């Protein structure tokens, strides 16, 4: 079915006050963000031409934690490495991965881990849920915290169908606090874990009660790509394409073990369609005969910035369908399709930001929207260059989970979460 493309008058974030008292939005009676349906996606920050809208910053807590003698641990998302490069003078879409790791160490971080390690773990957990729910109901992905905020506050009826797998950030931070701390003879409270993310909604995710261990956040704070660039500016750090190539050739600027290895599929978590494709690769790896993937446009904005795409393939005579949806307008249309009972698929990937995480609210602003696709190309190039294409080939991740989480219950406790109706 072809659905007409149209732009609704309102789309996330919903700027109207829940109380409806917009007329009282004065200096003496301000409508606060907590009283709105804001989902924290940060697209208002990206859209604001004057820079008047900014996410709340907690960067001062990093220095405070260091002064208190805590070990600083950074967790780096895939999209951050192709966003930060622009702010550091490199071409759009170029990766600054090794220089990012080096620079975080220079400003005081003791460990720098790759969030993509957990993206591979997330793929496996999502795939398990998709296979379990096959022919029963669609499984919605849970990687996007802005989407989770929207589900809990506006579409709570969808909660039973959302994957209980934590986001990659949620997974790796849980593992760091629960297992890595013991390995280095530290208490979880001795570690201050900082997510280096392209996303403003990750700030909300880090504060979720469901993502705490022994009463303390598993991810202490989350900072954006723009915020980490400010830290580097303050230290007068410089990046270049030549330096990146030299580091790779000499094997410098690598992520710290044991959370360093990842598949090419983990890189594409940073763009729209990446999670669904990674799950598809896992399903295909468990099958003997796999067909080619077909794609069909279901809905698209006139400027092609947001869309809903149906992707389909067959594995061992079993047909799998996935819907890939990105952008607030697209999500609004997606939920109309769902409520009409026409969403007959196995997996639904949802990203609130157009084109996915690489265009998140914490990423640098682009002068031309067309440059967004350059970041996509950068992530795809990493995927192409990686010898490991599938999460199931990430033996380092598989061995670590087997060692520390040998039982299904252990995996569920550390790598899964729950949601609540906040409507």
Automatic annotation (TrEMBL):
Give the 4Fe-4S ferredoxin-type domain ranges.
29-58
Where does the sequence pass through the membrane? none
Note the PROSITE patterns from the entry: 4FE4S_FER_2
Matching entries from Pfam families are given as: Fe_hyd_lg_C, Fer4
Question: Domain of life of the organism in this record?
Answer: Eukaryota
Q: Which InterPro entries match?
A: 4Fe4S_Fe-S-bd (IPR017896), Cytosolic_Fe-S_CAF (IPR050340), Fe_hydrogenase (IPR009016), Fe_hydrogenase_lsu_C (IPR004108)
Q: What family does this chain come from, according to its entry?
A: Belongs to the NARF family.
Would you tell me the protein name for this molecule?
A: FeFe-hydrogenase 5
